[in-house]
Design brief:
Blueprint lengths: L5 E5 L9 H9 L2 E5 L3 H6 L7 E4 L6 H4 L7 E4 L9 H6 L3 E3 L5 H16 L2 H9 L15 E5 L3 H12 L4 E5 L10 E3 L2 H7 L2 E4 L13 H5 L5 E5 L8 H9 L3 E6 L17 E3 L8 H21 L1
Parallel strand pairs: 1-2, 1-3, 3-4, 4-5, 6-7, 6-9, 7-8, 9-10, 10-11, 11-12
Helix pairs in contact: 5-7
Length: 305
């Protein structure tokens, strides 16, 4: 009997790794693949015939997954799986795979966001587009205290970069305890909000970290600060952010992730809020590494099944 081909849908956009070598590999492994080029196409796509998906950040809710009768594997080009209904997948025996943390590119993004926030680039850029010449005094890293919430691979690399740039002080909050150094001090979450000039969020999303930043933390701010989020949108209460901007507790926001994506919400109206469409890991090098890892993860599971 002829072996049944594995039907694969690639929904991660863009997908840079689909060269002739990958196509030959898929052919050798009896994998028929189809690739989508837009999020809108995914929303309309019937995924019932596919055995596996190489997924991006598009939404895999019950409505979408319930029709996927043949689906066995979802291999994410990324580390987060909050866009996938994992409970439903567990019931259906659909395996969810993810790649290792893209820490280098995210850390670089964070450093650029920290400097931009300290120098108030967002507000001055907005003013100049409106023909308003209004210089705003900023701060150097050497006179600034940076708060890091989440001290995994990304948080540690952000701290390393900051130290090499002669930052004044780094405050860290994490569920694990680490030894203090000359420039890195571990403290309670509330102390970071009381003493930082900029705070970077680098934590995973789970039951404990949903709404990790709420009105309590915003109200504890003593001097205006900036907040950068490259983790997940749901770790921050958006209404608390809006309140913080309106009350001038927040100087600048730099957001790469949102509770609902694509994001078209109220934060767009503020000139001191820079927003990017979930691209902190979006460099050629990092993207290709994650794509190739997602392919390897998929192939390992196909072989073991």
């Amino acid at each position: 009997m002829k072996k049944k081909k594995f039907k694969l849908l690639i929904t991660a956009i863009p997908f840079l790794s689909l060269d002739e070598n990958i196509k030959k590999l898929f052919k050798k492994k009896d994998i028929n693949f189809e690739i989508l080029s837009a999020v809108e196409k995914f929303k309309k796509k019937n995924i019932s015939k596919f055995d596996g998906i190489i997924a991006g950040v598009e939404n895999y809710d019950i409505k979408k997954l319930s029709g996927a009768k043949n689906l066995k594997i979802i291999s994410r080009v990324g580390i987060g799986i909050d866009n996938i209904d994992s409970n439903f997948c567990k019931k259906r025996n659909i395996q969810i795979l993810k790649v290792k943390s893209p820490f280098e590119s995210v850390a670089e993004y964070t450093i650029s966001a920290i400097i931009s926030s300290l120098r108030n680039f967002s507000s001055m850029n907005y003013d100049l587009h409106k023909k308003i010449w209004k210089p705003i005094l900023g701060k150097s890293l050497s006179e600034s205290t940076i708060g890091i919430i989440g001290y995994g691979k990304i948080g540690k690399l952000v701290a390393k970069y900051l130290k090499s740039l002669n930052v004044h002080k780094i405050l860290v909050h994490d569920i694990k305890k680490f030894q203090n150094t000359r420039k890195v001090k571990f403290c309670k979450k509330i102390d970071i909000f009381k003493n930082s000039d900029v705070i970077s969020l680098n934590i995973d999303l789970n039951k404990k970290t949903k709404n990790f930043i709420s009105f309590k933390e915003i109200n504890s701010i003593k001097k205006p600060l900036s907040i950068i989020n490259t983790s997940r949108g749901k770790v921050i209460n958006e209404k608390a952010l809006i309140y913080g901007i309106e009350k001038k507790k927040i100087n600048n926001l730099f957001l790469d992730v949102f509770e609902k994506e694509p994001y078209y919400g109220q934060l767009r109206k503020y000139k001191n809020c820079i927003m990017t469409p979930h691209i902190s890991s979006f460099t050629n090098k990092c993207r290709k590494e994650m794509e190739l890892e997602s392919i390897k993860n998929l192939l390992k599971k196909i072989k073991s099944n």
